[in-house]
Amino acid sequence: MTTAPLIKVEGLTKRFGGLVAVEDLSFDVESGEILALIGPNGAGKTTTFNLIAGVLVPSAGHIALDGQRIDGMPVHRIAGLGMMRTFQHNMPFAGMSLTANVLIGSHRKLRASVLDILAGRSFVRDEETQARQRAGELIDFVGLNAYRGADVTTLSFGEGRLLEIARALAGSPRVILLDEPAAGLTTAEISRLSAMIRRIAADGVSVLLVEHDMHFLLPLAHRVVVLNFGRKIAEGGSRDIVRDPAVKEAYLGEAAGALREGAPDA
Ligand SMILES: Nc1ncnc2c1ncn2[C@@H]1O[C@H](COP(=O)(O)OP(=O)(O)OP(=O)(O)O)[C@@H](O)[C@H]1O
Q1: Of 42 and 256, which is predicted with more confidence?
Q2: For a pocket test of ligand 1, which of 41, 45, 48, 212 has the largest count of ligand atoms closer than 8 A to its C-beta?
Q3: 44 C-alpha to center of ligand 1: Å?
Q4: pLDDT of 265 higher than 60
Q5: Is 44 in the pocket of ligand 1 (CB under 6 A)?
Q6: Mutate to test the pocket of ligand 1, among 47, 48, 52 (most ligand atoms within 8 A of CB)
Q7: Which terminus of the chain is less hemmed in, N or C, by CB atoms within 10 Å?
């Protein structure tokens, strides 16, 4: 029996004036799969992410989430369908505790409206208690328990990025988009991040990553899609990707070394 992919990208194209940033791109992401988008600078990775998350509208092509077309939908509706993302640059809410920051991520699941809150309906309190408990579990999951009540401004850059993942998970996503999650993290934080991503995927959540750090990425990804000048030039497991002549050619120079060194042993 074959199951339908959770995300289906078909013929995706994005033009910025005369520049074609993404061209006729197709790939699927299964439930619980860790899929990496890689490619040299300017290859179209961030644009693809922004198209999937609804920040950009495609010039052509389709994106479906669990069989439902999402291309052209506003960001909040796509998030409401279970797609959460983190950004290359941290955006924690300063002046608020870690718990409060994570609670913000849980709003998509809560039933309570402003009217329910004003009317003091009892289920509102139950929901809040559960959301707080879950926020605590997620802060623990990302290894930041010691800072739970602290203001987010006391976190290091790397800790802030881990907090962002907790916030994204608070929305109980079906898909999580991670934009360069390892950037700026210490070696210890990167190995914690790898373990976290594996656990997230093992729970059935699809993980779509854009990442430059091949040491981190290649052993982690179940499948890799390689872009160059907006087009897909290769797709497959890490071992096959690093041997692919078209990929080697695209990664001339410094990045080629990283690609070789990051390759898992055959
Ligand atoms: N809003 C925009 N307007 C015009 N051109 C854009 C815009 N966004 C991206 N581009 C161009 O589209 C191409 C793809 O950019 P994109 O940021 O998607 O690449 P990338 O693979 O994420 O690169 P990097 O690894 O450097 O982040 C680049 O040539 C870029 O200059």
Answers
A1: 42
A2: 45
A3: 6
A4: no
A5: yes
A6: 47
A7: N
Residue 19 CA to ligand 1 center (angstroms) comes to 10
Decide whether any atom of ligand 1 lies within 6 Å of the 45 Cβ. Answer: yes
Tell me, what's the ipTM?
0.97
Q: Which CATH architecture has domain 7-82+173-261?
A: 3-Layer(aba) Sandwich (3.40)
Query: Cβ–Cβ contacts within 10 Å for residue 40, how many?
Result: 17
Residues 12-27 pLDDT 10s: 999 999 999 999 999 9
Q: Which residue has the tokens 């291309």?
A: 71
Structure-token pair, residue 122: 């009892």
Per-residue tokens: 49: 């992410």
- Ligand 1 center from residue 88 Cα (angstroms): 14
What does the pLDDT look like over 92-133, one tens digit per residue? Answer: 666 778 888 888 777 665 555 555 655 666 666 777 788 888
In the chain, domain spans = 7-82+173-261, 95-157
Both tokens of residue 90?
């941290």
Q: How far is CA 146 from CA 120, 143, 190, 205, in A?
A: 33, 8, 19, 26
